[in-house]
Amino acid sequence: MNLRCAMKGRRVLTAAAIVAGLLLTGAGCGGGGDQGESKASSSSSRSPDKDDGAGGHKSPTDSGDKVLATAKDGDITVTVTSAQRDPGGFVTVAGQVTNGGNSSWLGADWQSNETELAGNGGSLSGANLVDEKGKKKYLVLRDTTGRCLCTKFSRLRPGDSASWFAQFPAPPDGTTQVNFQVGGLPPTPIQISQG
């Protein structure tokens, strides 16, 4: 009988220790959840006051990104935050697009008019990099099924911003400056960094 009581006591103590550990872990992870939410909502409510210089608002994911270039076409503002040469022989260009207009935007005029890329819809499939010194134009890369290696946009409502990327064949190693262009945006000079 003593053995049975001892085993039962151990089980109760073990269960109590596990429950206490879970409660402490939950309190440590979830503590201040309301404060975190109020901080997040207060920072997002403050974000309209902070202008990233491109007419759009910084998102938490790109708060540390440096702006390489900004271009505007009507109500649409494009900010380029990185142009990185990757070891695989391509350049990845990324940034933000902001709709400063009164109607939704789909990026339809940014798609490529190449028949191979016709199924990409509103995307950066029509973007290109131009190496003026080397006199070469680099189009967006695509996979074997004709999908561009770039962002495909969903509806961008007025005042909204979205992150974007596009991958291009890499210019020669000595080329560090190219012009980025898509749709009706003017060609915008950007610096390529080594990845």
Could you characterize what this model shows?
This protein is of the alpha+beta class and 195 residues long. It folds into two domains: 2-47; 55-194, Sandwich (Immunoglobulin-like). Helix content is 22%, strand content 28%. It has two helices and nine strands, in the order H-H-E-E-E-E-E-E-E-E-E. It has helices spanning 2-30, 33-46; strands spanning 69-73, 76-86, 90-99, 128-131, 136-139, 161-169, 177-181, 188-191, 193-194. Strands 1, 2, 3, 6 and 9 form a five-stranded mixed β-sheet that branches. Strands 5-4-7-8 form a four-stranded antiparallel β-sheet, with no helix packed on it. Strand 1 and strand 2 form a beta hairpin. The longest helix is centred in the first third of the chain and has 29 residues, at 2-30. The radius of gyration is 25 Å and the shape is globular. This is Lipoprotein. It comes from Streptomyces lannensis.
Summarize the structure.
The protein has 195 residues and is of the alpha+beta class. 22% of the residues lie in helices and 28% in strands.
Radius of gyration: 25 Å
CATH topology descriptor of the largest domain: Immunoglobulin-like
| Poorly predicted runs of 5 or more residues | 22-63
The averaged pLDDT comes out at 74
Continuous helix count: 2
CATH class of the largest domain: Mainly Beta
What's the CATH architecture of the largest domain?
Sandwich
Question: Got a strand count?
Answer: 9
Instruction: Encode the helix/strand succession as letters.
Output: HHEEEEEEEEE
Beta-strand share of residues = 25-35%
How many angstroms separate the termini?
70 Å
- Helix content percent band: 10-25%
Largest sheet: number of strands, sense, barrel closure = 5 strands, mixed
